[in-house]
Amino acid sequence: MSGGSLDGTAAEPCALCDIKLLHEACLSHYLRTCYNDRPVFSPTSPYLLAMSLPPLVGHRETRRRLARSVRAGTLPQVLLFTGPTGVGKQRLALWLAQLVLCERGGDEPCGTCRACRLVEGLAHADLHWFVPVLRPKAGDADKQVEEVAETIAGVMEERRKRPLYTAPDGMAIHSIATVRLMQRRMALTSVEGGRRVFIVGEADRLVPQESSPEAANATLKLLEEPPVGALIVLTTLDPRRVLPTIRSRAAPVRLNRLSDDEVRGFLAQHTEPRWGREKIEERVALASGSIGAALSEGEDAGKAYRSAEQLLAAVVEGRGAALERALGQATFAARGDFAAMLDALAETLGEAARGTMGQPVRRSVPAPLLRHRSPGPLLLAMEKVAEAREAAAGNVNPQVLLAVLGEDLAEVL
Length: 413
Ligand SMILES: [Zn+2]
What we know:
Elements lengths: L18 H10 L16 H5 L10 H13 L5 E5 L6 H13 L12 H7 L6 E4 L10 H21 L14 H12 L8 E5 L12 H12 L5 E7 L7 H4 L3 E4 L5 H11 L6 H11 L3 H6 L2 H18 L4 H9 L5 H22 L19 H18 L4 H15 L1
Parallel strand pairs: 1-4, 1-5, 2-3, 3-4
Helix pairs in contact: 1-6, 3-4, 4-5, 6-7, 7-8, 10-11, 13-14, 13-15, 13-17, 15-16, 16-17
């Protein structure tokens, strides 16, 4: 393992402790000792000054509530943040991490103490942020864990450089290897001596049932009996997409859409290069209160929604020639494209379901879908899409999956 600290001193990797943890520690350039008290890198202040997180926007009432529970010592150990894509669920989780790790304490993280700065630089040794990544390629289970640890460390390094990230690849998941990595990290003690925070972004991509039941049980055990002092924050777009066993063990925290003003203000200050007024207004109008949507509303997202709409339009016409044609025409060069289309499909169906309940529809939805008198068939269709989504994470050919899904949807819609 290589990597020099910023002040040019190199350190010996520890032969006794988990080498990947050490590797990650050297990425953060400040850990003084490894888990076996061997010297690693001397602290280097320039790195601590790096502020990489964009500011948290909105959710003031939720922040107040969370801060109150932190102060009162009543914050549940496992939380599930739910809410629309791009409203800052993981950003709020990082804010909460900063709040509980802050050396000063208060209603907001102070932002200036060492712990606060380390969190902002995504470099706090007791903050573990798990993001979905592509399924590891290694054959051996231990190697898979190492591969996932390295991939996630790479994502973190990328986020330190470009803090405004867009949605991960549609095929990215939390595989068994990620669960094992989580287990290993949770088994360790606090490096800084305080609390430890584990953030699991897009927890609906957790697929512990894929192989060994031990791993599934391990996940549940982690949530059922989290280690003392550990705080686990899971985030998801829709709590129904999270495994019920996980959902039942977490205290829900619902986040709402941001106001247009909040989105506008963020775009005006944090886009690089700065966006003009016209572009900002255009994106705000499309974003429905989501900074993530405002940032990513581009070609790719548009393509996925168009494919989803075409498929749904063909499906509601029945099983005839139109559906055959739609299924024949849709080809997906990359698995990620296919997964993105499935996400767009689920989202469009969700909008239609809202429409049938008399709520405003924020995306274009094929009109026949709105003729259903209840959301039932649409929710059933969403379940079918979720099943396909799960199968897509395996090795099933997208074309085959799509044909089956097309049939399934034609049946329920
Ligand atoms: Zn602080």
